[in-house]
Amino acid sequence: MQIAQQMNIILTKEIDYEIKQDFFMNPPYSRVSEFMKFAYSQHIKNNVSCIILTYSKTGTKWWHKYVQGIADRLDFQRGRISFLDENGNKTKHGAPYDSVYIVFEKRKSN
Predict the structure, then answer these.
(1) Strand order of the sheet with strand 73-76?
(2) What pLDDT does 11 receive?
(3) Which residues, 6+ apart, have CB-to-CB distance to 106 below 8 Å?
(4) For the segment 47-99, what is each residue's pLDDT rounded down to a tens digit?
(5) Can you tell me the distance from the alpha carbon of 49 to that of 2, in angstroms, rounded to the nearest whole number?
(6) DSSP at 72
């Protein structure tokens, strides 16, 4: 939990800025491809570590372009992730898809 808090950066609707520190991202399902491209480009350009929590749709174009054979680590979650409401109570509906943590680790300097 502490690592995730240290890496957390809130990404807004606009993703046209530089991230020069390690970060966590949970992109909206409707824009996963766009956010994956952004996260991967920041990882490469700025040599930052990134943890991404998203759905595990392994047949999508974005999966094969930015994840498969590229990510340093994948952690598939057992079952579906649940959500909490503003009062901390579990909501009626959980995630509609299986989820995965995708990890890009910063490269060591020579």
Answers:
(1) 23-25, 50-55, 99-104, 73-76
(2) 52
(3) 22, 43, 47, 48, 49
(4) 999 999 999 999 999 999 999 999 999 999 998 888 888 888 888 888 889 99
(5) 15
(6) S
What's the CA dihedral at 56, 20, 34, 104 to 10 degrees?
-30
Q: Which two tokens stand for residue 110?
A: 């020579």
E strands present in 21-98: 23-25, 50-55, 73-76
Amino acid at 105: E
**Owner of token pair 């009626």:** 92
Q: How many residues does the chain have?
A: 110
The Cα 46–Cα 43 span in angstroms is 6
What's the rounded Cα separation, in Å, for the pair 58 and 78? 15
Helices (H), the chain: 2-7, 32-46, 61-66
Identify the DSSP state of 84: B
pTM of the model: 0.81
The count of other CB atoms within 10 Å of the CB of residue 46 is: 14
